[in-house]
Amino acid sequence: MNQLRALLNDALIRTKHVENAAIINIKEAEICASTFGFNVPPENAVNLIYSFYKNLLQVRRGGLYFKEKHYKCVRADENSIYLQNPDGGLIVVKTKTYILVATYRVGMYPSVCVEAVEKLEKMLAAYFDCPGGPENLYVKEVMKPHPGEGEVLVKVSASALNRADLLQRRGKYPPPKGASDILGLEAAGSVAGLGAGCKGRWKMGDAVMALLSGGGQAEYVTVPEGHLMPIPSDMTLIQAAAIPEAWLTAFQLLHFVGKVQKGERVLIHAGASGVGMAAIQLVRLAKAVPIVTAGTPEKLKATANAGAAVGFNYKNEDFSEKVLAFTQGSGVDLILDCVGGSYWEKNLSCLSTDGRWIIYGLLSGGEVHGDLLARLLSKRGTIHTSLLRSRDKEYKEQLVKAFTEDVLPYFSEGTSPHLQPLVDSVYPLHEIAEAHRIMEENRNIGKIVIEMPAAS
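Above: the chain's sequence. Below: its structure in token form.
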């Protein structure tokens, strides 16, 4: 209700083009918000609903009564009614969920109400009311966002899961300040609206994929225009949804943070994850050597198919010993580590002199017990830490631009090497809880994609 009341004040009253306004919930037939002192009698609310659904022709001919005053109809259609009497005017505008009614005087421009009701539109989104397990997730009807300065509204066809979504659901990874609290760090769909100040990069209907700070697992999301990428013409929206967060994370770790060089050996933990599968292919693109760890033979086979030079099962073999054997004792130049604490000794054992160890997740926790610094110093090693979600808008725009120019062309058919996102499975939005369970149990190889309802 506070959100609706804020809408009335910000989008209507402050324009000084209406005097008073109220919002009626059609299904409940009750007032859910109104400006100060503007009391709409319940029978008037019912009558306004009735006017649209049963009595529009009669309203056109005879007008209607509102708050004991008669108003003559000036214009009416299935979405809006304009009425007047000697004291002023009345406008009534309908959406699927709400009716907005407002009074105005001569010289005012009540058409602002039509623009305001667009902000009353609803959409479906993945939601949870309190932190906890996957069972807390459900699909909720929420307010549809509207693009601000330099933003694009995207009608989402598909999104994809990331570990960050699981952490946020558990209450351990809140969205950055100002970001949507709806889950989803990536999405693919089409341009459905352009905010003021957009520079003409995109037009209505363009197929796009988006890097997000949140909000992707909903029917619509707003995105800074510089965080969008075009979808290659031969790629499906499901495939495109598996790219932004995972591939941009891997690209950032390898190039912006790790400065990977031709011929270097790169150890990639969680090699069969979305980021892992992306990193394998990007390491190959950089003409370096990808080495992976994973927890099952099936996952190791998938990483080999993606281009891993070799892979080791961390559950039944010491990956540090295997890495040293594979590299003839010299170790790896770069480690991409989303595991953290439990791997520190093995990571240092197989890190080369002057090697770089990049930590971008803490699946096993962050506690370290032992003489990490002395061992790191002995190898002149460097530890970097990196998160993408909390980076500023300008950084993300530079990252998206570099990826679009340097990597995106290789997703098109006929390119060599040819890059391809790996989709493990696709779940409809209403099965979001099951999708979370699959990821939580580490059963996926590649990305889990969430598909939005076909009609919205």
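The chain has 14 helices and 22 strands.
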